[in-house]
Design goal:
Elements (H helix, E strand, L loop, with lengths): L1 H6 L3 H24 L5 H20 L7 H9 L5 H33 L5 H54 L4 H17 L5 H4 L19 H7 L2 E8 L2 E7 L4 E5 L2 E5 L2 H17 L5 E5 L5 H6 L6 E6 L2 H9 L13 E5 L2 H7 L4 E6 L15 H9 L1 E12 L5 H12 L4 E6 L4 E7 L7 H8 L2 H9 L5 H5 L2 E3 L1 H8 L11 H5 L10
Helix pairs in contact: 2-5, 3-5, 3-6, 6-7, 10-17, 15-19
């Protein structure tokens, strides 16, 4: 909820969420120290009151779509990155305080309600708490979120807190159990009948590129501008985040935690189709392919225009597979092609799981500043991918220079070039670049490319993104092997144990860095 409305998905955002959570627990414990309960009954009553707060938090869920509207007044001023993170931590701490403060207060209060301190009794209580926390994390990620959605999961957990509060109150005041039960039923129902936050507002990531809401011809209030961007036609919460699809009447956009990750407009379509076609320019006879990252399915559709006998897709988030089916007619039914096999797995784990080799591997993850994506931009990953290329195989990595510094782009190129003996860099005007790596030299053969571009589906694909001639296409090959290495230069590489890009890239807050 904080990632959607306040912090975004970078490694700093996750640190802000953790800091706010731990800070709130500390506040709750500090309150207990200032006003400790007088006896066991008062301790049970205090625990019950504390556990009402997480339930009250769910009652306030309908207001959470207002949070980004309020904070946008700060985001639009583009404060320095450390200041921005400080604001996010303070906002997150205050917003979570009803829950985290209650946790920090309730557990030690319950311990004091057990009577005089005893190692066995206190140990059992804290062991139960630890087991609950250990079981709660996978239960929330793999059962509650996919089954009930984010808001439904929070309401269910709020109901559990209310039941625990009721149990504590019944123990503290045994003579009033009927009254407690009478209040319980309508209180449980209240969050269920209240409206949910507006999907467009929580799927727009106002903290991400705030300038897009300030540039003319934007008119109306901020909320009206968000609503005008289109309606949410698909929404599903999964273990890695919220996946949604927005339809503005002309194009579809895939949103992951509110951030656009794919769309059918010209810029994104060019990126995804070029990712698909570029490795086949160098390996037109490829028969087996692997794509890391399904997205909206446009890359899949373009790769299947080539004579592949099998295309495997590694996609870590099940909800993305459902979202790709919303793009069905835009990708010409590619999701139903018998050559396609979608594997719900992390791309690196899939490569490690077997020594299977591929003629073409395309890596098209989300942006490197999204927490966890850096593992698909490291030297270690590239070396693993190289080991899974068949003889003559080609690996293609998508990357972006929008929202990046020149040094970050050099680190990406440097890390890639360290893993492959032969590399090339391609670029188009929408802010993306592509790195291709192979064991053999990557040679431009215009005659072979012209023959490839005469093939019906491939020609139609490239014409859609305004490429009609092999020479016009080849003009986007920016650097060959020697030039890529000269551009990359000497310096730090991005590796598994030193993932520098995860920490440097979030500092750039808009698309105008280069």
């Amino acid at each position: 909820l904080l990632i959607l409305s306040v912090t975004g998905s970078s490694i700093y955002a996750l640190a802000a969420v953790l800091s706010s959570f731990l800070g709130g627990i500390a506040v709750g414990a500090a309150v207990l120290r200032l006003r400790p309960p007088r006896d066991a009954r008062a301790a049970l009553a205090g625990c019950g009151i504390a556990l009402l707060l997480p339930w009250a938090f769910t009652v306030l869920l309908p207001l959470w779509d207002r949070v980004p509207l309020v904070l946008f007044g700060i985001w639009r001023r583009f404060p320095p990155f450390p200041v921005l993170q400080g604001v996010n931590v303070v906002a997150a701490t205050l917003l979570l305080l009803p829950v985290t403060g209650a946790f920090g207060y309730a557990l030690p209060t319950l311990a004091s309600a057990l009577g005089p301190p005893g190692a066995a009794r206190t140990g059992r209580l804290f062991a139960a708490n630890t087991l609950g926390a250990a079981a709660g994390a996978p239960a929330a990620a793999f059962l509650l979120l996919p089954g009930l959605g984010l808001e439904g999961a929070l309401i269910a957990l709020g109901a559990a807190a209310l039941l625990a509060s009721t149990a504590a109150a019944a123990l503290a005041f045994p003579g009033r159990r009927r009254l407690v039960a009478l209040v319980l039923a309508p209180a449980l129902a209240l969050p269920v009948v209240l409206p949910r936050p507006a999907p467009p507002l929580l799927n727009t990531a106002l903290h991400f590129r705030p300038r897009r809401f300030l540039e003319p011809p934007r008119r109306g209030t901020l909320e009206e501008r968000v609503q005008a961007m289109g309606r949410i036609v698909y929404q599903q919460d999964g273990p890695t985040g919220r996946v949604a699809v927005r339809d503005d009447g002309e194009s579809l956009t895939l949103l992951i935690n509110g951030k656009p990750d794919a769309s059918t407009d010209l810029g994104d379509a060019s990126t995804m189709m070029l990712s698909a076609h570029l490795p086949f320019l160098y390996r037109p006879e490829a028969r087996t392919g692997l794509l890391v990252g399904l997205g909206g399915g446009l890359t899949v559709a373009s790769m299947l225009h080539h004579p592949l006998t099998e295309l495997r897709v590694a996609e870590i988030e099940p909800a993305v597979v459902g979202a790709a089916r919303v793009f069905h007619w835009r990708i010409r039914g590619a999701m139903d092609d018998p050559r396609l096999h979608v594997v719900l797995a992390d791309g690196r784990r899939l490569l490690r799981a077997s020594d299977r080799r591929y003629d073409v591997i395309v890596s098209e993850p989300s942006n490197v500043y999204v927490a966890g994506m850096v593992t698909l931009f490291t030297v270690d990953y590239y070396r693993l991918a190289r080991s899974r290329l068949a003889p003559g195989g080609v690996f293609c990595q998508w990357a972006h220079y929008y929202g990046s510094t020149l040094e970050d782009c050099r680190i990406v190129a440097r890390s890639f070039a360290a893993a492959f003996p032969h590399v090339a860099m391609w670029m188009h005007g929408f802010g993306d670049f592509f790195l291709l790596g192979a064991e053999d030299p990557l040679v431009i053969d215009l005659d072979a490319w012209r023959a490839l571009l005469r093939q019906g589906e491939i020609a139609r694909d490239l014409k859609r993104i305004r490429y009609t001639d092999a020479l016009q296409l080849a003009a986007h090959c920016l650097m060959g092997d020697a030039d890529v290495r000269r551009f990359a230069g000497a310096g730090p590489q991005c590796t598994d144990d030193r993932p520098v890009l995860e920490y440097t890239t979030p500092w750039v807050r808009d698309d105008s860095a280069l």
